[in-house]
Amino acid sequence: MSRPPGIRALGLDPGSKRIGVAVSDLSGTIASPLVVVQRSRSKEHDLHEIADLAREEEAEVIVVGLPLNMDGSRGPAARAATGFAKALATLVDVPVEMHDERRTTVTADESMMAAGLDAVQRRQRVDKVAAAIMLQSWLDARANRLSS
């Protein structure tokens, strides 16, 4: 089975206070936590900060986590993430996609607890780890789509 072509992807987990950011390796195989961007009072500023990060990381696609409800419906958080993605798409020259991120924050917190991190350490990292879990899911789904 041949491998799909690599892609440099930036993954975002936009929350109301912080935006978790993850990045893939150059082959588009492995996602890693990158940074947590603290939200400012200006959505415009936050969007430009993410757009700048995407350029610095030479992202070829940006994947924004879509926090669907467990039943698959879209609540306020999903609508906010969709609005964020649409606004970001106007500032960057690469595709902006959405990907289901249900339970990524819970999974991230559980994995950090298992690794022995205390509550303060987990709070500092959970958003970027959740972004990496979501981005890894997108990368795996992409590889499956391209190889079938």
TrEMBL record:
Keywords: Cytoplasm, Hydrolase, Nuclease, Ribosome biogenesis. InterPro entries: RNaseH-like_sf, YqgF, YqgF/RNaseH-like_dom, YqgF/RNaseH-like_dom_sf. Gene3D superfamilies: YqgF/RNase H-like domain. One of its GO terms (cellular component) is cytosol. One of its GO terms (biological process) is rRNA 5'-end processing. It is an enzyme of class 3 (hydrolase). Residues 7-108 form the YqgF/RNase H-like domain. Its main location: cytoplasm. PANTHER family: POLYNUCLEOTIDYL TRANSFERASE, RIBONUCLEASE H-LIKE SUPERFAMILY PROTEIN. Belongs to the YqgF HJR family. Could be a nuclease involved in processing of the 5'-end of pre-16S rRNA. This is Putative pre-16S rRNA nuclease.
